[in-house]
Amino acid sequence: MHMAISVAVSGASGYVGGEVLRVFSEHPDVDFGALAAHSTAGDALGLHQPHLRTLADRTIVETSPENLAGHDVVVLALPHGTSGQIAAQLPPETLVIDCGADHRLASAEAWAEYYGGEHSGTWPYGMPELITGDGHQRDNLPGTTRIAVPGCNVTAVTLALQPGIAAGVVDPTDIVAVLANGYSGAGKKLATNLLASEGLGAASPYGVGGVHRHIPEIVQNLTSAGGEDIRLSFTPTLVPMARGILATVTAPLASGVSADEVRAAWERAYADEPFVHLLPEGQWPTTAATLGANTCLVQVTVDQKAGRVVVISAIDNLVKGTAGAALQSMNLALGLPETTGLQTLGVAP
Amino acid sequence: MHMAISVAVSGASGYVGGEVLRVFSEHPDVDFGALAAHSTAGDALGLHQPHLRTLADRTIVETSPENLAGHDVVVLALPHGTSGQIAAQLPPETLVIDCGADHRLASAEAWAEYYGGEHSGTWPYGMPELITGDGHQRDNLPGTTRIAVPGCNVTAVTLALQPGIAAGVVDPTDIVAVLANGYSGAGKKLATNLLASEGLGAASPYGVGGVHRHIPEIVQNLTSAGGEDIRLSFTPTLVPMARGILATVTAPLASGVSADEVRAAWERAYADEPFVHLLPEGQWPTTAATLGANTCLVQVTVDQKAGRVVVISAIDNLVKGTAGAALQSMNLALGLPETTGLQTLGVAP
Amino acid sequence: MHMAISVAVSGASGYVGGEVLRVFSEHPDVDFGALAAHSTAGDALGLHQPHLRTLADRTIVETSPENLAGHDVVVLALPHGTSGQIAAQLPPETLVIDCGADHRLASAEAWAEYYGGEHSGTWPYGMPELITGDGHQRDNLPGTTRIAVPGCNVTAVTLALQPGIAAGVVDPTDIVAVLANGYSGAGKKLATNLLASEGLGAASPYGVGGVHRHIPEIVQNLTSAGGEDIRLSFTPTLVPMARGILATVTAPLASGVSADEVRAAWERAYADEPFVHLLPEGQWPTTAATLGANTCLVQVTVDQKAGRVVVISAIDNLVKGTAGAALQSMNLALGLPETTGLQTLGVAP
Amino acid sequence: MHMAISVAVSGASGYVGGEVLRVFSEHPDVDFGALAAHSTAGDALGLHQPHLRTLADRTIVETSPENLAGHDVVVLALPHGTSGQIAAQLPPETLVIDCGADHRLASAEAWAEYYGGEHSGTWPYGMPELITGDGHQRDNLPGTTRIAVPGCNVTAVTLALQPGIAAGVVDPTDIVAVLANGYSGAGKKLATNLLASEGLGAASPYGVGGVHRHIPEIVQNLTSAGGEDIRLSFTPTLVPMARGILATVTAPLASGVSADEVRAAWERAYADEPFVHLLPEGQWPTTAATLGANTCLVQVTVDQKAGRVVVISAIDNLVKGTAGAALQSMNLALGLPETTGLQTLGVAP
């Protein structure tokens, strides 16, 4: 038996849209309907996504409420500030999954400060593994018809640190996160600093000094996990890879906590998670091991001299960081097994 | 219903072995038995293949006939010159798939000249799309219990040019092939020229001047496709990517042939192939579009001034170039649909 | 004693302009005057060329005849089709060095066919090592006040093959050249295929099938070196490096010529060249060895079975391919020692 | 007039040795004597350092006190633990410059803890810009005949943070440093994790959790700059580039200090430094801008919400991080102008 789920994708010619098509294609029940975009409407999809052979001959249609109507699921892969408008024109019973930032933040003040403009409202947050007061965010997703997919950097940092926050073994008031980021996180937009000539052989930071838009979202998550008075220094750096995030996250070791208690906190948090894997002691994550997969690899240790817990996580920004989280959340929303169609094998080397 | 096919893999801690595990994992009927290697025997697989999460806790066993016995299929991912010995100790009814070079060449003289040492014999060749006198190589695979998987460079060049050879629209006596190659084709062996410091930001040739071991295999294939008196200049070059082969192959336009006839030859050859795709006119292959997929992308044009047909093909050396070809051939040998479990979506960007 | 040569650079915020500034800075007699550009005029140079610390505080001025006037030397690093106009407004006694294509071709027909538009005329060609009927192109440069700097691909292919053409040991009627190219050759322009996300981990061809604008220039050079009825198949491919060209060039071995005669031709041609180095037998060029240097590394061999001579050359497209050739030619034009201020040590690894 | 300084280099076939040869070649007074190594002795240097054209024909000699004797300067580019022995056999009046770790640490206890084995003693430290109690380390170098060149990561972190420590505007008891590192920092040794296939497209950490050998050296330096009770969390990560270090260093803002006071501290510290450049506000360092140059680019800001000062520095690990520091220190030791022969122009893009 095949339960067909019709899925429309808006932003189909971009990197996030392309990855949604790739990842959702592996789901046994998904049938694609409209593949929509704006400036590329009318083109064959294969012109912009030559790696998606099964969809190469499909024609891109204009992003419009009419074209997106009539599907079970609509995935929006649009620049922030634009999905709110589209979503408002879709019926309430359609499952709308927003890969953009518009509906992630609960705080309208935080939205105004970091993004500017009017807040589009808050949707159920598509990070099933997020620890909440009484369980996990996955408990809040069944039956929802609106899902806000987390930011990719946010996923890497949240999954790295939340076990320590929830267990109270780290001090949440002085977190420092530094990330090595692949270029696809910046999207397909044309900018000099995103050119291959600039990126090849170079490392460079961006959004330094507390201004990056992912900060309030990380604070929101770590607060959900039980942290109070979260303070976070957050610095992403572009390095020469197309995909991947390696997050190095440190926080002060809470007073009187042993290294064994630290490790136990992470083991407990992720023992049953299908996609978040604490590696054996001594083995550290590499982004290569997550390429193309919906996995997050984590390792933790205590630096006693520095008085800090050091956690490193690796994800593929376009899968666990975006399209995989979208599909995982869709499964939960529709009452399917959470892992359906999701890949745990990375493409390495 | 699940028809379990038990598969053992020898060389499981190397790049080819790891890719066999990744690609065969996606086959609905495959169950892995022994994962064997030599110097890493006793280790958890995850130490050497951290991307293969579902197999990370499996213990690597020693490569021995005892450990490999009792499986439906044994895949050998070993250095050339070693698989002949192992294969000889496996029962004739076991399907043995050799990813190495030992059993590819029909000519013992060619083996002696290019590889040296004794020839291990010739097995049915695992390139289903290869054009033969009266059909395709896929016709020769059902029921076989021995398969020689083609070399990766060989696959890229053969699939690029064979339509023109078979149709007689190119002159086979002066072929020139230059390849851009990712580093994984060289395997996991430790050598100074394979270090990241050497490879990053650099392009360098290897095996120049008619000495590369893939030459007699390409000649053998193009002869199968109908070429006589094949002569081939072949130069691979290492470029800074982990995977992928981009082959630029040119041959003189046969006398009196039009550009339309050239295009028609390629269209006809690949119209029904599930994994070899002639792109729309004007779109050229990029290796990125094949990453992780069992696809070969091809484009062809005629350079009238130069009097040459120019063909460019792109493959993932570890998938269509090795592990995917192995699985595709296994399907044929076992009487399963040829495309079972094989991926056509690349991981890009 | 310091003989000051005042140099203005137009296009100072681009890649070629930046490299002209870097390379000319190492010349003991050069003093920079106007650093001109168009869209970046008014900015500090360091904003666009952060690697040029000694010039970081200089202000970019508008590209205008007024701003460029009054210098001993004006270097134009502009898109093709624009330098002709500017040059026409500079005094005849000013040494104008055009890094663009406008003045390279002797044939107005070739210009019309490959570039389109009106031909700006032909200037003395800035490739000192080019073999001419009775010597080298360096003999034609002293005293000139106009220099057309060669194209970077052209330099790689010409220097690779001209010894064989001049000595008559290769057949010039069926040359095949395939190049691995770094991204900076495409300049700083914003285009999707030049994004880091597209380029990282991928190889892709461009300008395939006899349409690349560097073809007539290569033909012109090889004709200068003594070739008749030159025919050339030419395919550049983008690979993940910021700089560098590795050219694999093959041509049929002329009838009755021995491998020793082939090697002797290359040895003779480059024995006294300060920047073009034939490597010891068995050692092949890598682009890494030329990074930042005005060198061209070459190796040649004979593939007897294929009946072809195979030559591989490596250059830094921005140095020997552009800015270094400009400085070397300037030295000759001004009567200075040809090697003054030019670097032969590459930056590796 | 030419004051010839004869320089011998031990470890000439490695990455550090090769860079010493490249960088010292640009010094007007340096003449190379013995080029020594061990396993490559007898080879032409060009076989191992093909980018050093002017030295390509020199023969590598065995590393022995006899071969190193009789030079004005001996540069040791050897694995740690081996230079102490060699140095002991060189005359006291020879200037010995050790690029390895053996003589950097003042504390024998720190040596024993992080490196193990016997401490070889402490030599004057080759970081001219290091702030000391009453000036800079450059004041201690004139006339010395022994120099310990700093570690590359140490240089990036020290130069990033010392202005804030010296000015008392940051709290030194909770420093967090995360680095993006190019592969050449690991040297030419053969190890699986240093292969191109592993490094291309991947980011991975090493030496995590307070065990990295550069930690005590950084603590020593920041103590020199005036810090007390230094505590440092330090995590280097390998990213796909051959050269370069991007260090993201944060420390708590000291109580009552304004953002202006922070900036003023960095401006004051580096206003007169020839090689350490604080960028204009808003411009952040990229490693590309330092490639091949003896420069360190720095930017600083205050993250008020996080309560931390964030500093980012970029260097070329082989130049400012090693060979350039060696030459700069040699100049000081020999009474030459500190900047003689040192490059400030990076090779970009």
From TrEMBL, chains A, B, C, D:
One MF term in the entry's GO annotations: NADP+ binding
GO cellular component: cytoplasm
Catalysis: reaction(s): N-acetyl-L-glutamate 5-semialdehyde + phosphate + NADP(+) = N-acetyl-L-glutamyl 5-phosphate + NADPH + H(+)
Domain of life: Bacteria
GO biological process, one term: L-arginine biosynthetic process
Broad class of the protein's primary localization: cytoplasm
Domain (Semialdehyde dehydrogenase NAD-binding) ranges: 6-138
EC number: 1.2.1.38
Gene3D superfamilies the UniProt entry points to: Dihydrodipicolinate Reductase, domain 2, NAD(P)-binding Rossmann-like Domain
Record-linked PROSITE patterns: ARGC
InterPro entries: AGPR, AGPR_AS, AGPR_dimerisation_dom, AGPR_type-1, NAD(P)-bd_dom_sf, Semialdehyde_DH_NAD-bd
Localization, UniProt: Cytoplasm
Active site location: 152
NADP found in the keyword field: yes
Pathway: Amino-acid biosynthesis; L-arginine biosynthesis; N(2)-acetyl-L-ornithine from L-glutamate: step 3/4
Pfam assignment, any one: Semialdhyde_dh
Protein keywords: Amino-acid biosynthesis, Arginine biosynthesis, Cytoplasm, NADP, Oxidoreductase
SMART domains: Semialdhyde_dh (SM00859)
Group of enzyme by EC: oxidoreductase
Function of the protein: Catalyzes the NADPH-dependent reduction of N-acetyl-5-glutamyl phosphate to yield N-acetyl-L-glutamate 5-semialdehyde.
HAMAP family: ArgC_type1
PANTHER family in UniProt: N-ACETYL-GAMMA-GLUTAMYL-PHOSPHATE REDUCTASE, CHLOROPLASTIC-RELATED, N-ACETYL-GAMMA-GLUTAMYL-PHOSPHATE REDUCTASE, CHLOROPLASTIC-RELATED-RELATED
Similarity section: Belongs to the NAGSA dehydrogenase family. Type 1 subfamily.
UniProt-recorded name of the protein: N-acetyl-gamma-glutamyl-phosphate reductase
Organism per entry: Demequina activiva
